[in-house]
UniProtKB/TrEMBL annotation, chain A:
Localization, UniProt: Membrane
Name of the protein in question: Cytochrome c-type biogenesis protein
UniProt function note: Required for the biogenesis of c-type cytochromes. Possible subunit of a heme lyase.
Protein keywords: Cytochrome c-type biogenesis, Heme, Iron, Membrane, Metal-binding, Signal, Transmembrane, Transmembrane helix
All residue ranges annotated as the CcmH/CycL/Ccl2/NrfF N-terminal domain in the record: 11-138
Keyword Aminoacyl-tRNA synthetase tagged: no
Membrane topology: Single-pass membrane protein
Signal peptide extent: 1-22
Transmembrane segments: 106-128
Family classification: Belongs to the CcmH/CycL/Ccl2/NrfF family.
Listed InterPro entries: C-type_cytochrome_biogenesis, CcmH/CycL/Ccl2/NrfF_N, CcmH/CycL/NrfF/Ccl2_sf
TrEMBL record, chain B:
Record field: transmembrane: none
CDD domains: TlpA_like_DsbE
Classification via PROSITE patterns: THIOREDOXIN_1, THIOREDOXIN_2
NCBIfam families: dsbE (TIGR00385)
Keyword Disulfide bond in annotation: yes
Gene Ontology CC annotation, any one: outer membrane-bounded periplasmic space
Entry keyword Disulfide bond: yes
Protein name per UniProt: Cytochrome c biogenesis protein CcmG, thiol:disulfide interchange protein DsbE
Compartments where located: Cell envelope
Pfam family, one: Redoxin
Entry keywords, A to Z: Cytochrome c-type biogenesis, Disulfide bond, Redox-active center
InterPro entries assigned to the protein according to its UniProt record, in alphabetical order: Periplasmic_diS_OxRdtase_DsbE, Redoxin, Thioredoxin-like_sf, Thioredoxin_CS, Thioredoxin_domain, Thioredoxin_ResA/DsbE_sf
Stretches assigned to the Thioredoxin domain: 36-183
Length: 151, 190
């Protein structure tokens, strides 16, 4: 009996409990669609105080202010992109976890592919050279007097 | 072609080495957040005075429509911010000695605390805007207090300093920015 009750209580606790969020109930919007969009935006925005955290999971004061601001903009009818642009206008590209693709970031975005292709070219060159050497060696074999089995 | 290829590894090593050397530079601060405000007009904001204080409030027009006679320094401070206390003496001295106009943004502070703080330490500010909810702070893109901005005669942000203006290096940087603000003004009139 006690065991059953214990299991029931634990199950209930497990069902009711949620992972700890920084977003407090008073910040949340009544409209679940807008709230969902706000959460999605918040996950892309860097907290300027605690630099490797998004504002959605940060407990910093500024992060809370920005979360509320994001929701206000959404309620006012901004699109997701307009909200992000609003923040970028104040804090720079720095607030975005995903840097935009523009002239100053071309190197950043292209570097992995450039490095990868340099490596690919290097491997291709080495392989081609090896193959050539192997072919040459194969062609030379009959001419070179090596120990033949019948000798 | 072969010869060029032979030098390729050295080239790559030099480029990589240069990049790593740049990363090792002790003066480079990877935590520094670049400000988008530099060379931009002051952001739009309008703040009431601190309740119960005689100093008038602060809005962007106060900064944009200045006569350019002296560079303006905007200092974001709060009574709960310990480094601000240390910085206060430096700014007070600069008002006296460097001929700056000091404006304050009192960030997320209770009016009575701000009043007491200014009573204790003195009030070097010409105007103080009370930013209770931190909205003006967001307009300025601040990440905390204290932060200090230099505005030139045209109402353009010339410089941003994050953290307390303490020590020769920080004060030197601020003075350089003040010079630049003065030059900007001179360039306009000539």
């Amino acid at each position: 009996m006690i065991r059953k009750m214990l299991i029931a209580v634990l199950t209930l606790a497990a069902l009711l409990s949620q992972p700890a969020f920084a977003v407090e109930p008073d910040e949340m919007l009544d409209d679940p669609v807008l709230e969902e969009r706000a959460r999605a935006i918040s996950k892309q925005v860097r907290c300027v105080v605690c630099q490797n955290q998004d504002i959605d999971s940060s407990n910093a004061g500024v992060a809370r202010d920005l979360r509320i601001l994001v929701r206000e903009r959404l309620v006012a009818g901004d699109t997701d992109q307009e909200v992000l642009d609003f923040l970028v206008a104040r804090y720079g590209d720095y607030v975005l976890f995903k840097p935009p693709f523009k002239p100053s970031t071309y190197v950043l975005w292209a570097a992995p592919f450039v490095i990868l292709s340099i490596g690919g070219i290097a491997i291709a060159l080495v392989l081609a050279q090896n193959a050539r050497r192997y072919r040459n060696a194969a062609r030379q074999t009959p001419e070179t007097p090596v120990k033949e089995p019948n000798a | 072609m072969k010869r060029i290829l032979a030098f390729l590894p050295i080239g790559i090593a030099v480029i990589l080495g240069g990049f790593l050397l740049w990363g090792l530079n002790p003066d480079r601060d990877p935590n520094e957040i670049p400000s988008v405000l530099i060379s931009q007009p002051v952001p739009a904001f309008d703040l009431p005075p601190v309740e119960g204080l005689d100093t008038p409030g602060l809005s962007s027009t106060d900064l944009a429509e200045n006569d350019g006679s002296a560079p303006i320094v905007v200092n974001v401070f709060a009574s709960w911010c310990v480094p601000c206390r240390a910085e206060h003496a430096v700014l007070t001295r600069m008002v006296r000695e460097d001929g700056i106009r000091l404006m304050g943004i009192n960030y997320k502070d209770k009016p009575q605390d701000a009043r007491k703080w200014l009573d204790d330490l003195g009030n070097p500010y010409e105007r103080i805007g009370s930013d209770l909810d931190g909205r003006a702070g967001i307009e300025w893109g601040i990440s905390g207090v204290p932060e200090t901005f230099v505005i030139d005669g045209a109402g353009t942000v010339v410089f941003r300093f994050v953290g307390p203006v303490l020590g020769d290096e920080a004060i030197g940087k601020l003075r350089t920015a003040l010079e630049q603000a003065r030059r900007n003004r001179a360039g306009e009139t000539s």
